[in-house]
Amino acid sequence: xxxxxxxxxxxxxxxxxxxxxxxxxxxxxxxxxxxxxxxxxxxxxxxxxxxxxxxxxxxxxxxxxxxxxxxxxxxxxxxxxxxxxxxxxxxxxxxxxxxxxxxxxxxxxxxxxxxxxxxxxxxxxxxxxxxxxxxxxxxxxxxxxxxxxxxxxxxxxxxxxxxxxxxxxxxxxxxxxxxxxxxxxxxxxxxxxxxxxxxxxxxxxxxxxxxx
Length: 212
What we know:
The chain is mainly α and 212 residues long. It has one domain: Up-down Bundle (Growth Hormone, Chain: A), CATH 1.20.1250. Helix content is 85%, strand content 0%. The protein has helices at 4-21, 23-33, 40-69, 73-93, 101-104, 110-119, 122-134, 138-160, 162-211. Helix 2 (23-33) packs across helix 8 and helix 4 packs antiparallel against helix 9 (162-211). The termini are far apart.
């Protein structure tokens, strides 16, 4: 069973990844890229499997990447938070996510660009890396893995329902969802920056007290 702190971390991990992946916004892209496809279920499965593998690799190798490059967790929190904020500003300003013509005409877009970077894009990878830095124990790492798995399953379900979703909510609904997700991403990004700055300031104060 998860403790209260692990549950809070799992909720943070899920909401962070869900707002960045934004499967509702990915639905029209999936529909456009699989137009005329005979097996959309297979395309959705391959895309989600690809994204799951990518995110799992970064979740598993996050600590090694930090150690190899000498990156501190607060530094990645600040950098990731800034990236989230910039992404959210772009998401709020843009009216829609465009599909490149070459990708729209691709024979099998399930792995690229659907799996990468529509689902497992730079934002999702950065989110995983930031969360890995905060997952210092086995319970939180398990919570992060659960959050990734739940997001992938939800994304798969939404992609399967994508044609119906796109036809029902229309362009206006898609824009509203994008704006809401952009706002949530901005809030999460600012919180990551605050967490990183707070950790840095705490270390500076401790070092100052130790030296005095």
